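One thing: could you explain this record?
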Amino acid sequence: MLTLRPEPSPDTPIRGVRNPQRLRAVAAAELHGHLDDPDLDAVVATLRLACGVPMAVINIVTENLQTYPAEVGVGAPCTQVPDGLSFCAEVVDSGLALAVADAAAHPVYSRNPMVLDGVIGAYAGVPLVDDGVVLGSVSIFGGSARKFSAEVLDIRGLQTRLASSVLALRRSARTDVLTGCPTETFFWTACGCPSLGWTDMRDWPASCTATWTAARASTTSSVTQSGMPCSTSSLCDYAGRCVRPTPWRALAATSSSLSATT
């Protein structure tokens, strides 16, 4: 039987495992496996305990690949299951919640490798949406056939909202909301050098300098489009203003000069 999905409305999140726009958003989110984010880890830990399931995941879905920034019970940062057999891929494709009470009896998911191995008996997942894009799913798995109660599904929904809030906070810390420019946090994360701060660029490792140069090219374009002038040595701060970073060395020298005159 052919199931027709509703046409997307302007408020419908961008979905589809192979949708290029969605995949760009997934790449920009930089949510790799076993992210070690304590807030996301708390989401899946709570799901496991509150829902009484052996497995709970935050799953970022790409073509034939499931990546888990946070998971309990899987024991791996990612899995490779064909999209046609993946519960979570269906959630991303449809943009809708999915519940399967008896995976072994399902005409499609019974061929999922983890179902065949007897690891998964039931599934319930809901889209994980950030900034209008379905990045993946928040899902729970039963070890045997089970119809999840309305209370369990409500808990999953609340934890999904919490996960979305965490992702929104991560995104806002990396991109200025007014200009779309990378913030200070973006460069620290991209360079992997969180202790750099506004140190003199001459003291930066080569990898950090290269990241700054590449990112500044897109930043300058973004600021220009927003009508704000920007130089190649400046960066948008958290208030959306274009500022020129002052090296700590120069700041210290200025402070010393002022102290000497007082």
Q: What stands out?
A: Helices lie at 20-29, 38-51, 87-94, 113-116, 150-174, 184-191, 206-225, 248-261. Residues 1-10, 194-199, 220-259 have pLDDT under 50 and may be disordered. Residues 184-261 form one domain.
